[in-house]
Specification:
Peripla_BP_I, SBP_2_dom, 12 helices, six-stranded mixed beta sheet, Rossmann fold, signal, 2 domains, alpha/beta
């Protein structure tokens, strides 16, 4: 049983704690809304706070670290009871997190890690992003069954922990497969629009016939790339295999249509485990482990993607 499942399974035990959380105020510094997954995370976080009687102060950073630092300082000045941070990049957080620590305000990282001393944050609720990349790479390795397969890669935001880790995991997975080689790699900044633009450049420089597969660090870039592939007169999912990460509703529609092949799920419910941790801490000072890992599930075109889409479409993606 994963740590996440254990936390969820213990929810019933924490019912009295939830009552104690009522009236607490939590600041949430969100990266922005660069993807459907990010929008879903925001929606679920707000829902979780409302259900628990927690006042949530929300700040959209529009994908700029300086905006997140400003928001955190604002939360500290307001004297919030805790801060949730989805960090846009991995570095440059020490000073502002030291300020939160000095004010005795616990900070919990959501869905991304940072390069900073561990005493500056209470815990990180994330997937194993290296593992996500490995799951994607292993799927492709099995799917091509030894055939020569040049790969193009759409990376996430430069310097972000998901981009670094998902690239690392994928490369580790295909390292022992000489038939798999990344021929082009460029950031699409996790957005659908940039995914399309960069895929168009890949197709122009490499030629569609010389691209066997696309690996995208998130589904939104993959969806943009699918449009570029179709406009180039090719069949996504057939002429070019597509594997990506997040499991947003639109990628399941694409798989249902045969235009994508696989996605690795990243749950948008990072706030649930984070609020569980805070409620236990507020009750009796219980400290969590430094990492709470969420599950990374592989979906392919063989799954019931219509049903999966229906189950996800109202989550705010």
């Amino acid at each position: 049983m994963t740590i996440l499942k254990s936390l969820l399974a213990s929810a019933a035990i924490l019912v009295p704690v939830v009552a104690m959380a009522e009236g607490e105020t939590v600041g949430f510094s969100q990266i922005g809304s660069e993807s459907g997954w990010r929008a879903a995370e925001t929606t679920v976080t707000k829902q979780q706070a409302e259900e628990r009687g927690i006042t949530l102060k929300f700040a959209d950073a529009q994908q700029k670290q300086e905006n997140q630092i400003k928001a955190i300082r604002g939360f500290v000045a307001q004297g919030v009871d805790a801060i949730l941070l989805a960090p846009v990049v991995a570095t440059g957080w020490e000073d502002v997190l030291e300020e939160a620590k000095d004010a005795d305000i616990p900070v919990i990282l959501l869905d991304r890690n940072i390069d900073a001393p561990e005493d500056l944050y209470m815990t990180a609720v994330t997937s194993d992003q290296v593992h996500e990349g490995m799951v994607a790479g292993n799927w492709l390795k099995e799917a091509v069954a030894g055939e020569e397969c040049p790969i193009v890669e759409l990376q996430g935001t430069t310097g972000s922990s998901p981009a670094i880790s998902r690239k690392k995991g994928f490369e580790e997975a295909i390292a022992d497969a000489p038939n798999l080689k990344i021929t082009r790699s460029q950031t699409g900044d996790f957005t659908r629009a940039q995914g399309k633009v960069v895929m168009e450049s890949f197709l122009k420089s490499e030629g569609g016939a010389n691209i066997c597969a696309l690996y995208a660090h998130n589904d939104d870039m993959a969806v943009g790339a699918i449009q570029a592939i179709k406009e180039a007169g090719l069949k996504p999912g057939e002429d070019i295999k597509i594997v990506s990460i997040d499991s947003v509703p639109d990628i399941h529609l694409a798989m249902k249509a045969g235009e994508a092949n696989a996605t690795v799920e990243l749950t948008p419910n990072m706030a649930g485990p984070a609020f569980d941790v805070l409620e236990a801490y507020w009750k009796d000072g219980t400290m969590p482990p430094k990492w709470i890992q969420t599950e990374s599930k592989l979906y392919t075109s063989d799954d019931d993607n219509a049903a999966i889409y229906e189950s996800k479409k109202d989550l705010g993606y």
